User: What shape does this take?
Amino acid sequence: MLAYLPPTLRELQLPLRLRLWDGKQIDLGPQPRVTLVVKDPSLVAQLAHPSLDALGSAYVEGRLDLEGPIGEVIEIGDALSQALIGEEEPGELDYRPHDKTADAAAISYHYDLSNDFYALWLDRELVYSCAYFETGQEDIDQAQQAKLRHLCRKLRLQPGERLLDVGCGWGGLARFAAREFGVEVYGITLSRAQLELARQRVADEGLGGQVQLELQDYRDLPQDGRFDKVVSVGMFEHVGHGNLPLYCQRLFGAVKSGGLVMNHGITAKYTDGRPVARGGGEFIDRYVFPEGELPHLVTIGAAISEAGLEIVDVESLRLHYARTLQLWSARLEAQLERAAQLVPEQTLRIWRLYLAGCAYGFAHGWMNLHQILAVKPQADGRHDLPWTRADLYR
Assistant: This one.
């Protein structure tokens, strides 16, 4: 039976079982916790060089099935890939044009999937970004409310101020800021599905006088400094390396002198911004976030600074995002039957791998998540920020 397998695969000691297309089973180690059901005979040869992209693609395409807890599937799949491939050398970065048409199509592909599908595993406010865990014991609803409050406190929002929300999603932050901090919010998104539900929720809460949400590209933002504060959550990952300077210039032009700008987004592990190793980044690019590009903290920091903003505070929330994704993945796994009624089978396979894989990736430091607070200084360099962070935690 071992004749089926490449020689390198036979030597591994992993808690993994292979079930072949003819019903035969091969254990690669004692007490298997995960079973790979190989439905396509040509996959056996590919298992000698099992990149995460190749394994994930085979599952998405139905050439491979998985049995076992999805978290353990990801852990053992990474161990298999690492044992046979190791860390691959970086290749050349592909800088994409990221014009308005391409960006709108990429956003629609990901975010217009199904509001009901997202509602299965996100919190009640549909906040689709890293939560904030003050103790680590919070549920997803508590942690997302804490995140929204943390952002608003960092921005030192005051009643009557005008807040620009770039990439407003389903409007959770916009409504929270209006309701809890008394500000007026102008939010923009490129997702029609998000915008429709977000506007409905604004109306349902009676916040129409405070919150205005529009379908708009960041490149079309007004440049007259009309906003007191700017917040952008989960946006710069979609902008592209080549457009980061323009993106930051648009935020600079939108905020008044002395105003604060908060960027909250995923950052790359490597300073050159290359994807995570062994094909994980390629899988996400192909199936999950087309046109997505992660900048390193140094890269986005340089673009913010060169636009004329002064960075005043940086916080890493990498472990918070690992926990967020663990909760999202668990919630989806608990609702697989319902999810299968809302999205195609291939889509559900993508999202199972994506959520569990990203939880694993953030926990293991493959990428990071940073909140970067900046100020647009007055002409004489002054700003009104407190001397310390103490006010954030009262």
